[in-house]
Amino acid sequence: KEKVEITKEQQALMKIITDAYNRHQIPQDVAKKLLQDQYSAEENFLLLTEMATSQVQVLVEFTKNIPGFLSLDREDQIALLKGSAVEAMFLRSAQVFSRKMPSGHTEVLEERIRKSGISEEFITPMFNFYKSIGELHMVQEEQALLTTVTILTPDRPYVKDQQAVERLQETMLDVLRKLCVLQHPQEPQYFARLLGRLTELRTLSHYHTEMLVSWRMNDHKFTPLLCEIWDV
Ligand SMILES: CCOC(=O)c1ccc(NC(=O)c2c3c(nn2-c2ccccc2)CCN(S(=O)(=O)c2cccs2)C3)cc1
């Protein structure tokens, strides 16, 4: 049985990434608004727009803390951000959703999101994904590393130096793999299950692109930052 050991450098890398990941949570006032009294579909939608916008701002800040990210080609940094923004948001959403919220909050939150003008065909796979992430009971280091692995996907559109991104992603995958073995010794397949969620995430982001078209048709407004990052 090969002895799995996280090196000092990998320990330091994990700490930087996890601290950066935890530094940004949903602004309490926004999350509170989402849980407060009855809203109309329009106000729910507006709240989600506000939350998604703050998520993008947080994502940009987070990527700056990924060791090596700022050494990548500038245009590739932008391509990675644009290519992973939706996936990173749904990964973060799943983690917010599955976190032990005060009892009843999760249901209220689910109700608000279901009543925000988003069509059922998108809502169902989204909540299935949230539940499948919740079932993994990831520790915060795994959550932060999985988001980092998602951001460092080499084959995003317009990435020029894919090898450079691949090298960075492999560094993160190696730490994540070891962490999974150490955190879930009874589940040798845990790491593979984690990576399988990234495939589910891509499907979700394809749904999201389709939904954007229908939202535009129903004249839903987005913020300039969301239009920029979602190419709408
Ligand atoms: C400051 C750090 O920010 C965070 O940590 C953060 C975390 C999660 C989110 N999540 C969301 O905004 C969000 C969305 C949805 N659910 N959902 C959600 C919120 C809380 C818990 C679980 C899920 C569905 C629709 N999209 S959307 O982008 O397609 C959209 C449709 C219409 C307008 S915007 C957004 C935001 C910020």
Chart the SSEs and their pairings.
Layout: H1 8-23, H2 28-35, H3 41-64, H4 74-98, H5 105-114, H6 120-134, H7 140-151, H8 162-183, H9 190-217, H10 224-230
Concise account of the structure shown:
By secondary structure, the chain is mainly alpha-helical. The protein is built from ten helices and no strands.
Protein traits:
single chain; about 230 residues; mainly alpha; 10 helices; about 70% helix; globular; binds the ligand CCOC(=O)c1ccc(NC(=O)c2c3c(nn2-c2ccccc2)CCN(S(=O)(=O)c2cccs2)C3)cc1
Question: Could you describe the 3D structure shown?
Answer:
There is one protein chain. This protein is mostly helical. 72% of the residues lie in helices and 0% in strands. It is built from 10 helices and no strands. Helix 4 (74-98) crosses helix 9 (190-217). The longest helix is centred in the C-terminal third of the chain and has 28 residues, at 190-217. The model has no long low-confidence stretch (mean pLDDT 90). The ligand CCOC(=O)c1ccc(NC(=O)c2c3c(nn2-c2ccccc2)CCN(S(=O)(=O)c2cccs2)C3)cc1 binds next to helix 3, helix 4 and helix 5.
